[in-house]
Amino acid sequence: MDVAISRSAVTGRVRVPPSKSYTHRAILAAGYADGATIHNPLVSADTRATMRAVEAYGGSVDDRDAPLSITGFDGRPNVPDNVIDCTNSGTTMRLITATAALADGLTVLTGDDSLRSRPQGPLLDAIEQLGGRAESTRENGQAPLVLGGPIESGSVSIPGDVSSQYVTALLMAGGVTTDGITIELETELKSAPYVDITREVLDAFDVETERTESGFAVEGGQDYRPESGEYTVPGDFSSASYLLTAGALAADSTLVVEGVYPSAQGDIAIVDILERMGADIDWDRDAGVITVERSTLTGIEVDVGDTPDLLPTIAVLGAAADGETHIVNCEHVRYKETDRVAAMANELDKLGGAVTEAHDTLTIHGEESTLQGARVAGYDDHRIIMALSIAGLSAKGTTTVENAEHVDVSFPNFFATLDEIGADISR
Ligand SMILES: O=C(O)C1=C[C@@H](OP(=O)(O)O)[C@@H](O)[C@H](O)C1
Ligand SMILES: C=C(OP(=O)(O)O)C(=O)O
Q1: Peptide bond into 150 cis (omega under 30)
Q2: Does the fold of domain 20-232 match that of domain 3-16+235-426?
Q3: Most CB contacts within 10 A, which of 13, 161, 190, 363?
């Protein structure tokens, strides 16, 4: 499905979808428990992959609309009857790799073309350090993966600069091992707030984890027990970033975004980034409401070490701002559904943006950029598609984004939501 977006104004009130990261963890935590009811879940292509995995390990998921009623496998995953297809979801594949290592037998994990090109090597190495079997069928550190357990407990040493999801996977599985898992980080941890999200969800399921001097640790022999059997997912700040950017670039008067309460999400930084760029933005934290007005923006420097998923959004803001926007510390953003640093450099260039790409930085020269509608590729990547669609709202003329159906991964109602607030869109 190609989507055409013409320059138009947006206004009104919108609600953000529930958080993808919290939903994945809550579903899997309910699987590690004997079950739970998950309120306000994100039901999307990626979270459905995690639901299927919980079922493959012996749990069940009823009512795939809110709330989700999950029966768990109680810390003891079955050997799946079939290969588990994680489709496009890196979070699913990393988190359930460690689950597979708890089962007494072999599990095979695969995914789509994109997921089968993403790095899994450090996590496979960690499973081997714990005495499990962990193989990449093509011996290139990528899926398809063959995992065998059961691992019992132990210490692992892994790099922290490829994906934080390896740490999340080991902490979640470690709680139900005999003696726990200690994780030593060989490098600085990138995407660190995602481990904070994990620890927050584990705490809500009564599983204790620890930040140590050199990494993290989780004691074994713990039971996943959600308080009163329930868990409620907060709103998603990565998804909110597209709506807030739409407001800052194209609001008629104001755009009001609802369902945005404080949580451990690093992508809350979008509020501060917009403020630093000069946007007129106000966050009522108690009410969970952000109000943003169309604003004249100025380029800034942003370190995305903690917030890789904001890179496409910030690149679009930079192309619409005056002056230079310098995005630094972004090498890990190249390991996502696509190489998002290169994708944004290529596609903003087609829209008239002046961009300089280096290995670990992306610079957008706002003063040399005048956004003009064009046909752009979506790279089958939800975040590239959503960011370019918002660029299309403020570009002169019409922007066509190819294969835009992939928004289904994290924000299934994205185009319907833009439509509701007045964007000129044809699908
Ligand atoms: O754990 C998570 O929920 C996520 C962690 C981040 O990945 P990395 O830790 O691989 O950077 C982020 O980019 C991804 O969208 C979701
Ligand atoms: C990178 C992302 O997710 P995942 O790693 O789960 O594929 C994302 O949602 O931007």
Answers
A1: yes
A2: yes
A3: 190
Q: Which atom of ligand 1 is nearest to the CA of 238?
A: 15
Task: Please state, in angstroms and rounded to a whole number, the distance separating the CA atoms of residues 46 and 37.
Answer: 19
Ligand 2: list residues with CB < 6 Å. Answer: 20, 46, 89-91, 309, 336-337, 383, 410
Ligand 2 center to 88 CA (angstroms): 8
Cis status of the peptide bond prior to 234, with omega within 30 of 0: no
What residues form the annotated binding site for phosphoenolpyruvate?
A: 20, 90, 118, 165, 340, 383
What type of residue is 55?
Answer: E
Tell me the one-letter amino acid at 356. T
Each residue of 2-58: pLDDT tens digit? 999 999 999 999 999 999 999 999 999 999 999 999 999 999 999 999 999 999 999
Mutate to test the pocket of ligand 1, among 123, 172, 309, 381 (most ligand atoms within 8 A of CB): 309
ipTM, 2 dp: 0.99
DSSP SS3 for 343: helix
Instruction: List residues forming the annotated binding site for 3-phosphoshikimate.
Output: 20-21, 25, 163-165, 191, 309, 336
Output the pLDDT for position 29: 98
Give just the sign of the alpha carbon dihedral 315, 316, 317, 320: positive
The Å distance, Cα 121 to ligand 1 centre, comes to 16
Closest protein CA for atom 12 of ligand 1:
309
Cα separation, 177 vs 153, in Å, equals 6
d(CA 381, CA 386): 9
The reply to whether 236 belongs to the active site is no
Identify the three-state secondary structure at position 223.
coil
**Taking the domain 20-232, which CATH number applies?**
3.65.10.10
Domain parsing of the chain, residue ranges: 3-16+235-426, 20-232
pTM of the predicted model, to two decimals? 0.98
Name the residue at shortest CA distance from atom 6 of ligand 1.
191
The architecture of the domain spanning 3-16+235-426 is Alpha-beta prism (3.65)
Other beta carbons within 10 Å of 228: 8
